[in-house]
Every structure is written in structure tokens, then in C-alpha cells.
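Review form for a predicted model. The reviewer records the input and the model, then writes brief findings.
Reviewer: anonymous (R2)
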Amino acid sequence: MFELIKPLKMNTTSIVCAIGCNIISSLIFLFIVLFLLKPRIRISPFICNYDGSFHIKIVNRSFFSAFDVKIEMFQLQRYPVPPNGKMNGKYEPIELKLNNLLQIPCYRPVWWREDAKHAIRVRTYKNIRDILNEEQNSVVIIVSLKHGLTSLTKVFNHEYSDLTQIKDNKFSYGTKFGVLN
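Model under review:
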């Protein structure tokens, strides 16, 4: 009625093979989590100037929401350091109207979404044009956020260093970085 369960006999080769397969599958899983499930955003390559303020557009490109979003903007002033003349930088904060968000909703293709909540704009009232008029100055925006599924944090930054990166117009709707005519 009851049969005794016989223990499996494993030789050294099958044990080494099993351990090797487990290590490989763990590495594949780790690769997927660490490289493919990080937050992905894009920061506009230019600044829009309208309504007396300067705007920068940030778009969440991940299929997961981004949480704990921190946005900072700095004026970067570069100066040479003797004896080699290499450049050092001095960062001065620029006040943003909105610099902390709880979340940026996830990206959805245009046929799936009703609106573009995954694209946000931040603005400052400080005159960016005056900063970029000086050759050694630039403006840096730094965005730190956490992935909605894995909670992995990633930091993105973008530097604006030329007056041609300021457009006197509004951003277009949605994911694209166009301007309205």
C-alpha cells in the first residue's frame, strides 16, 4: 500500500550543472531587473519662454509610473583652476515653481491614452537668458526618480549652455518636444 520513496542519487556532474543553471538564470533575472526596469525619462533639449517664465518639459518613457520625483535646477559657473587651467564649477540653485512630485504617471501609446499626464513641465521665473548671456555660465536640470515596480532610483541631468536653446514659444502637446506656431 505505501511505497517507500527512494532518495535520488546525484553524481557530481549533475550537481555542478544544476548550480551552473541556477547561477545563469539568476544573472538573467538580475539583468532584466537592473537594466530594463530602471526609470526612463527624456528632458527637453530646449527651454520655452512664455508668460514671463521659462519652462522645461520632462516625459516619462517607462511603462511604469515614476515615484518620489525630485527636480532641481542650477546655474553652473565654470572657472579655470591653476596651474593646468582645467575648469571647475560652482553651482547656484535656481528656484523652481514645482520641484517635488509624488508621481509621474506611466507612458501609454497614443491610441491607448486619453491625455498626456506622463509629460510634465516645470518652470522658473528667473531669467535664464541673462544667465546664458555669459560665456562661462550654463543651466543644469537634475531629475531624480524611482521606478514604480522595482523602486530603483535613477538620476538624469541635462545642461543648457547656449542662447539658441531658448525658444519663445509654448511646448506642443504630448510626448514630442515640438513647439506651437
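Findings: The chain has two helices and ten strands.
Further findings: The first strand starts at residue 41 and ends at 43.
Recommendation: see findings above.
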